[in-house]
Amino acid sequence: MSTTTSLFAPPASDYPLDPTYAHRHASAVVTVTGPDGAPLADADVVVEQTNHAFTFGNIGFELIDYINDYEHGASDMATTRPGRELVDADRKYDAAFAEKWLALHNAATLPFYWGRFEPEEGRPRTQEYLRAARWFAERGVALKGHPLVWHTVQPQWLLGKPVDEVERLQRQRIRRDVGDFAGLVDTWDAINEVVIMPVFTAEENGITPLARVKGRVEMIRLAFEEARAVNPSVKLLLNDFDMSTAYECLIEAVLEAGIEIDYLGLQSHQHQGYWGLEKTQRILDRFARYNLPIHFTETTLLSGEIMPDHIVDLNDWQVTAEQWPSTPEGEARQADELEEFVRTLVAHPLVEAFIYWGLGDRGMWLNAPGGLLRRDGTAKPAYDRYLGLVKDEWWVAPHTVRTSATGEVTIEGFRGTYRVTAPDGRATEVTLA
């Protein structure tokens, strides 16, 4: 008897959690020189961290209107996210929101839902989104587009078209948007929630019939191949909320079909209660066996009442924000859960990204109290706790280091970028990788 394991990694036990985060640390020796190029001996230089290699991200949806100064009127978020209209009229709130957003995150997910990005055929919101993408990029924020293919939030004008025409338009859409945003958005959720795509019945759409004809694997091939055809350096995720063996079987089929997955996307909306340490570790063990970098692409933790267990589709829970408030007890619980969850992910060697799904309670999906800011924009304990991890415990603050007799200094810390500034003000960036 023989077994074949060529596609996948060794057993998951080869990826134990490391609470010391040793795998996140690196060091480098830098030689500081003077204006004449000679080593600068016995001089005081300032070393400071400027970014993390690990992705600490959030959605950038709420900031698109603010960035565009409502130049084109309210964006898609205003009419599709309950409560968003309250934000549109409050520039002071938006400015404070943006400041808190940038203080914590180094990556943003932008909403390329086809039905909202191109509500009228042939008239995509390209310029509005390019403006937003440039705003983030100018502030050192990496960008991801979400998603290129999905069966939900589809354009109404796609309904009634023959399947082959839908496929042509879907392929055209991928090439257009990946090409238009190349250099700004070079990471994409290529296709979203494929496990249920061919059997989705909650709303009529043009993509589910196409998925029934082509099958799951070929839908994934379509998304990945079209994106790479126009941007060969693009990084692509397979993303899903289904943490069952159905997703594992799909991943195996995709890899066996020779489709290259850059990152494995795992959603973790925890509206019905925190996963807990044991479940989180179990999920990490199961999906680590593919030896793929893992992104936790969509995470929500509540600071109020937990959604009832009997709800199967989270979208079926329809309440107002007033009916689902954040509470002091819930906020304390959320802070503890978020800290444990983030520490667990950072401790795993294959996890490269953690993306929270909404900074504030205003406009939060399902009106849930899932943000890290209250509806008035003030920070919940979870925001402060999370910020303390990212920009304090796991961050190297500006400090003075004296060069050796040969002009050398050693930089140590979490992997990422650092600035070294000489006494005369000259500075250079160093990457610990």
Please tell me about this protein's structure.
- The protein is α/β, with parallel strands linked by helices and 433 residues long.
- It has two domains: 13-48 and 397-432, Immunoglobulin-like (Sandwich); 56-393, TIM Barrel (Alpha-Beta Barrel), CATH 3.20.20.
- It is 33% helix and 20% strand.
- The protein contains 13 helices and 14 strands.
- Helix 7 (163-180) packs across helix 8, helix 8 packs across helix 9 and helix 12 (328-346) runs parallel beside helix 13 (381-393).
**What kind of assembly state do the chains in view correspond to?**
single chain
Based on DSSP secondary structure assignment, what is the total number of beta strands?
Answer: 14
Number of domains: 2
Helicity range:
25-40%
Strand content: 15-25%
Key terms:
433 residues; alpha/beta; Immunoglobulin-like; TIM Barrel; 2 domains; eight-stranded parallel barrel; four-stranded antiparallel sheet; 14 strands; disordered N terminus
Summarize the structure.
The protein is an alpha/beta fold. The chain has helices spanning 64-68, 76-80, 84-88, 91-104, 114-117, 126-138, 163-180, 207-214, 216-230, 245-256, 276-288, 328-346, 381-393; strands spanning 25-31, 44-52, 55-59, 107-111, 142-146, 187-192, 235-240, 263-269, 294-300, 351-356, 399-402, 408-414, 416-421, 427-432. It contains 13 helices and 14 strands.
Write the layout of secondary structure elements.
Elements: E1 25-31, E2 44-52, E3 55-59, H1 64-68, H2 76-80, H3 84-88, H4 91-104, E4 107-111, H5 114-117, H6 126-138, E5 142-146, H7 163-180, E6 187-192, H8 207-214, H9 216-230, E7 235-240, H10 245-256, E8 263-269, H11 276-288, E9 294-300, H12 328-346, E10 351-356, H13 381-393, E11 399-402, E12 408-414, E13 416-421, E14 427-432
Parallel strand pairs: 3-4, 3-10, 4-5, 5-6, 6-7, 7-8, 8-9, 9-10
Antiparallel strand pairs: 1-12, 2-11, 2-13, 13-14
Helix pairs in contact: 7-8, 7-9, 8-9, 11-12, 12-13
GO molecular function: endo-1,4-beta-xylanase activity
Domain GH10: 74-389
Catalytic activity: Endohydrolysis of (1->4)-beta-D-xylosidic linkages in xylans
